[in-house]
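re: that chain from earlier
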Amino acid sequence: MNKLFSKRLASHLREMFKYLRLVFNDHFIFALLIMIGGLGYAYSNLLKTLHPNVWWSQPIIILVMFALLQIGRLATLLEDADVVFLLPKEHAMHTYFLAAKRYSETLAQICQLFGLFVLLPFIQATDPLSVAALAGLAVTQVILKDTWLTAVLMNHYRFSQRWLHQAVWFRWLVPAIVLIIGVYVTPLASVILALAADGIMRLLGQGWQRQAFDWRSAIGQENNRMLGVYRFFNLFTNVPMLKGVAKRRKYMDGILRLVATKPANTYLYLYSRGMVRSGEFSGLYSRLTIIGMILLYFIHGTWLPVLLAALFLYLIGFQLIPFYWQFDDIVFTHLYPIKTAQRIANFKRLLRTLMIVTGVLFLVIVAISDFQLEVVVITAIVEIVEILAMVSYYLPLRLRKNR
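^ sequence. v structure.
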């Protein structure tokens, strides 16, 4: 079973690296550096305004540490067919799941420690602690995450103790109590309590490999986990595993009626409805727009907001270009007596409209977060130039290249 997990893990990592190469291209890395720099600058400015021993710092520390515990899910790498083909080996699967837990815990603990590293300046600025106390909180966090993953794994088995199947105990209630004691009382007590909770979980789970395994629940959770991963990758590239489902959004019907139903707008009619009703591209557009707006709200300065707005506007335009070929697999679109030039003109109009809407939203956020007339004007000029360049020059070049 260890060989089976190793084989699946190797295949899984190859797939992840394939998508990561597409995600972390030169444009995204540049945008990521700008975002990290801007957020770091905003974080440092926030820390300068904080004072020690404020009453609300400890609840924030607890909430952040509790939220960090939710990062890093159990990756079992189970497949739909396993419920049939691995069922005879059910009682031998415990070595497989232990290997899955080790892999999941490695990634999860890295996230825990990195999150605590980011939180450390806030702790020292508002509630200064000794090195030993900080180490105690870090150890507590690591132990609680181990308990959390153990609870998730045990929840896949059908124990006679029904309360073990309630996620509220070791995933919500126990971590909350331990973190409150660690922050308000002493980190040493939280370490002891976390060790006790971890020990109790392991004691209660003795012989778990001899219990009946809930295949459908475990496979369903793994499918949901991978769906979240694929949705992230889908922000930057096409993911074949995600099957788009057309869904009518009645609240957008008023906007769609603005497209006149005449022969010159044949493809504009098709593209506009496809964009609104396609979960893949409409979701990509809305998510990138919302993420850009959130980041622009927290980033101040003269040039950082301008660069960030330009980068997100470029990412949106770049990611929407493949929508031009969205309906090529439908044979009836090839029967339309419409010239390619008219189709391109319709798509240009759609792309221009979407980028203008995003650009206006970015301008509003820049003006609200830190109104400086100079920054707003520069951002507007850069956005106008970028939209014109994307629609009039880059789009035709990309279409000719992929013809």
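The first helix runs from residue 2 to 23.
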